[in-house]
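Dear Dr. K.,

Following up on our conversation at the group meeting, I've run the structure prediction for Protein LEG1 homolog from Neophocaena asiaeorientalis asiaeorientalis. I'm pasting the input sequence below exactly as I used it, so you can double-check it against your construct before we proceed with anything downstream. Let me know if the numbering doesn't match what you have in your notebook.
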Amino acid sequence: MAFLPPWACALVGCISVSLAGAFSLSDLYPPLWNESPGQFSDYRVENGKYVIDPWLYSKRMGMYKILVNKTASYFEKFAPDNEQNFLWGLPLQHGWQYTTGRLVDPSRRTDCGYEYGDRLCISVDSWWADINYFLCALPFLAAVDSGIMGIPSDQVLLLPPPKDQTKFCLNISSCQSSFPKTMKKWNVLYKRLQSPSSSFDDLLKYLWDAHLSSLKDAYKIFEHRLEYYSKPEADFGRDWCVALDYLAAASFPTTFIQVSGFQKGLPPRVLVDGDKAPFISDFTDFQNTVLLGLNLLHQVDNATDCTPQSCNPCNSPAMSATETSAIYRTGNLTKSEAKGLERHPTVVQPIAGRTQ
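The predicted structure tokens came back this morning:
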């Protein structure tokens, strides 16, 4: 078994960031949550179909909002107020992408998404937006198909982007035809969700199985979009995809509080040339540490035969000075980066609040 740095535990589900002090859940909602559609009737109807434009931020967020609301009753047995609904991770990630400027046109050929243009526009040239589409359209349409949304399966149509239309499925039949395995995985999740005997942990495994399948479908199609970004941002995108495999293996619970806390460690803006963790001055120590850790996890994943399944990263103590020095000597870390990891052992904590 290959060596996996123990601090990787903080990046694959053994992390719990406390949201100290009194707060309201409404303060943590994604941007424009309250303004986004919350029911199908909030969208326009043409020829008996609800027509949704997923290339507008608020309209895509509305799809997530309906999904979270329609599935709320199935999570009541785990906790009140929909707080254990692990589908919250999807709109929260979308909100983070919007807030940090990752949905804009990275080629700058259009003003899509920029403050001086259409701020709500989602660019089809954005790698983040295209990956997110597969984590919005497919789970949403599969939910409609499963009957969990309460409308017939032929009553929803998504509008295409201004270009590369053939890369995106727009209704249930086209998604099932183009991505049958992934749509089946989402349908299995919703079927299990409706079963009274399903446990939270079992459902979480089905969620991650469908999530990773959507991600892999999208990555194969849109990897070339990373060419629009700086090297640090493109590397971060690749690092994030690798990290999700480990989050899935650790059954990270993508509930509202857990994801809200975890996202505090993600970059608050698009990375530019010259950004190098853990020395990014306008990032917090936590954000610098997480960014560095994601990159090192990717390096280890590439350089060894370690996989999320063969190496359990959550069974080790915090990384010692000796261990960080050992990685430094292998060339994976500079001496100052290794010291940076030593300074932040407190990020390695067990997950709190798991509900069976």
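Two things stood out to me. Residues 28-228 form one domain. The chain has twelve helices and three strands.

Best regards,
J.T.
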